Amino acid sequence: MNLKFLPCLLFVLLLVTSCSSTPVFKEYETVFQVGDQQEWATKDLNDQDWKKRKIVVPDGKIFWSRTKIDILKTPDSLHPYGLQLDVYGEYEVFWDGVLVGKNGNPGQEAIDDPGGKMWATFSLPAQLTEAGEHLLALRSSLYYFPSHTGIYDMEIAYYDALLTNRLIESSYMHLFAGAFLIASFYFLFLFLSNKKEYATLVFSISCLLFFLLILAEFIKAYMPIHYSTHVIRLQIIGILMLGISYLIPFYFSMQFPLPKRKLLLAIYAAILLYIFLSRYVFELTANNMALSMWLFSFGIVVFGVYKKRKGARLVLLTLLLSVPIVFVTPFNKSLFAGFSLILLGMFYLLSLRIKEQRLAYENSLVQSTRLRLELLKKNIQPHFLMNTLTSLIDWVEESPKKGVLFIEALAKEFDLFNQIENQTLIPISQEIALCRTHLEIMEYRKEINYSWVEVGIDLEQKIPPAILHTLLENGITHSLPLEDNSIKFKLVFEANSHYKCYTFLTFATRVRQARSDREEGTGLKYIKARLTESYQSKWDLTSEPTDQGWKNTIKIYS
Amino acid sequence: MNILIIEDESRIAKRIERMTRDIFGNALQSLTHINTLHEALNFIKNNALDLVLLDLNLNGDNGFDLLTTAVSESFHTIVISAYKDQALTAFEHGVLDFVPKPFNRDRLEQAFNRAITKEKSENHQIKVLAIKKRGRIQLIPIEDLLYIKGAGPYTELFLKDGTKELHDKSLEKLEQLLSHAFERIHKSYLVKMSEIREIIVESGSKYMAKLKNGEGIPIGRTKYKDIKAKWV
């Protein structure tokens, strides 16, 4: 991934989200009056004694609101202005005393089905929109949310632009949402193919939630929503925000592990839930959740940077970049721009991890090949081969019959190695046969009486090839015979529901090592690599001296 | 001949033993077999030996320590090893011969002959001389060496920096090991040929080799012709 490209993209995103055009109108304070008189629509009415504060109008009673508006620029001829309102309730719209539109049936709400919608657009007669003072009067009723009086948002612009701009905006946002939907599916499938990678699942869910959040936010542009049901949309958005706000720091905590992770995440969940449940102003709740999400993520990522985790610095940059965006752009856009920036950062992290995994996989292939070679080499490495051949020559020269038996034992060991050469797990019986043959060979070489005892072997078990053989080799190499010129090896198998355990005991006189700080031998490295290959990290290997010789244990956890 | 065999493979040790007895016959005074590194080091310290036959890989230990100790002693060392790739290291440290396993009687006899007949070693690879100094082994690069002077059973190594070190090997044994670059110009001196600047004939048919650092070393009357020919 070309990182130089990313900041440019972010910058463009910033520009796109921050542009807006100059308004053609100026809105004054809205005043209210309960009651219903037709002359309240007129432009020149004295409304000095009307209430300035928002009022509560119960039982769906009719009330009026008046808003003085200055049109700053006369529209081009034959190109009328329109008026867009974001207002709770059902209402009639009067512009300079003229009825220009109707949204539902004010006053009839208790009897009629709900009519009208939260966001309505009305065209304004061209002759009434010359530059100068105008008056917007609304004759409303608010049966469902009697306290939600007032104009939440208003826009005056060319009528066709008002209708299309919103659609254009939401079509772009839906394109955007689609990208996250696809990402969500892609990472879900990735997760399904490798169920250990929870980070991909979390990312997939985050993308899906983000997709739904965009949908829920912009659905209002093309789907009429009655003001009584609008709260459902807000609740959906709130829940989605809650989910995203939790999952993003959760994801970062997976990528940049921190101490006491579970505790911190639990505390964070509690904070989010508190904010979510104590909501009273929707936008404030969403903002608080977004803010705590940002702060918590920031903390985790800063910790990641401190610990020099891969990718942490770029993610920190995206987090920091999301701050100016939030300040520059209006709420709904800033949320999306900020979120998408952070999601991009998460995406980048995931791509890093996927790259790491690929490298690890390639490494494991190389490792497997190397282990196979090492296994093959056991029989042709000079120490084994040349010493064996030298002894063999001697036996052939001195006692040809024994020499033949020696050759047969050697042939058997070579044959066994050929059988197991390309396997990662072999039956324990085969491994034991290998060990016994090896002892036979070593008896001819070292002229020591080797004996082999097994206890509790379960013949159904499998084991990585030549690991006991390697322990045996170590035992032979590092031991001197007891008084009676013997060395005894004992293999004990124990199993329970938690683990399987092989104990390999050597009864012999230990050789005094010339140097105490011997580095780990290639033999133990081979065993460890084989165990990792087959059991990942679910194994233990111990190797320690005992009074009677040496003790190795291999524990394999289930 | 007092010979020590250091080998942890019993069958191979017996083979070496048998062949050694066979080759040396009555000339053999003692023959000892040891199979651990620790015992071997002790034995070398406390016994007078003429020849050590050494396997470099004992009980999983790298025999490098044993090798440097052995070559610093007065006796010659012959390595018998399964690892042919150790031959170079062994020669660099000044072993008399390297016998790769598997070996036969002829090859062993050839190695022994080098030791008995004082035949010059074909070893051109020797890079260092190991000396014992304050209980530790120190490696002196051959390139730092100017000449060697015999001092009874020992030798004195004269180095380029003007210092002098003592070696346990006799002049004869070192001559065997260093034959490719050094010449015995006098019964008490072994000199690196490339260090000789000129050969001076003094009154009374005394011959001197003038070294590059100005030192003069006597040349034996009988050796003069030979040296003169080789030097030109």
Can you describe what's shown?
The complex is a heterodimer of chains A (558) and B (232). Chain A has 558 residues and is an alpha+beta fold. Chain A has three domains: 209 residues; 141 residues, Sandwich (Jelly Rolls); 135 residues, 2-Layer Sandwich (Heat Shock Protein 90), CATH 3.30.565.10. Chain A is built from 13 helices and 17 strands. In chain A, helix 1 runs parallel beside helix 7 and helix 4 packs parallel to helix 8. The longest helix of chain A has 47 residues. About 1% of the residues of chain A have low confidence. Chain B is an alpha/beta fold and 232 residues long. Chain B has two domains: 115 residues, Response regulator (Rossmann fold, 3-Layer(aba) Sandwich); 104 residues, OB fold (Dihydrolipoamide Acetyltransferase, E2P), CATH 2.40.50. Chain B has a five-stranded parallel β-sheet, with helices on both faces. Chain B has a five-stranded antiparallel β-sheet with strand order 12-11-10-14-13, with helices on one face. In chain B, strands 15-16-17 form a three-stranded antiparallel β-sheet, covered by helices on one side. In chain B, a hairpin with a 4-residue loop joins strand 16 and strand 17. Chain B is elongated. The termini of chain B are far apart.
Q: Give the strand order, joined by hyphens, for the main sheet of chain B.
A: 2-1-3-6-7
Count of DSSP helices of chain A? Answer: 13
Helical percentage of chain B: 25-40%
Global outline of chain B? elongated
Uncertain stretches of 5 or more adjacent residues of chain A: 514-518
Shape of chain A: rod-shaped
Described by its quaternary structure, the protein is heterodimer
Largest sheet of chain B: 5 strands, parallel
In whole angstroms, how far apart are the ends of chain B? 40 Å
Number of helices of chain B: 7
CATH superfamily of the largest domain in chain B: Response regulator
As laid out across the biggest beta sheet of chain A, the strand order is 1-2-7-4-5
What percent strand of chain A? 15-25%
Terminus-to-terminus distance of chain A: 39 Å
What is the total domain count of chain B? 2
Order of helices and strands of chain B: EHEHEEEHEHEHEEEEEHEEEEEH
Overall pLDDT of chain A: 87
Order of helices and strands of chain A: HEEEEEEEEHHHHHHHHHEHEEHEEEEHEE
Protein structure class of chain A: alpha+beta
The CATH level-2 architecture of the largest domain in chain B is identified as 3-Layer(aba) Sandwich
* Biggest sheet overview of chain A: 5 strands, antiparallel
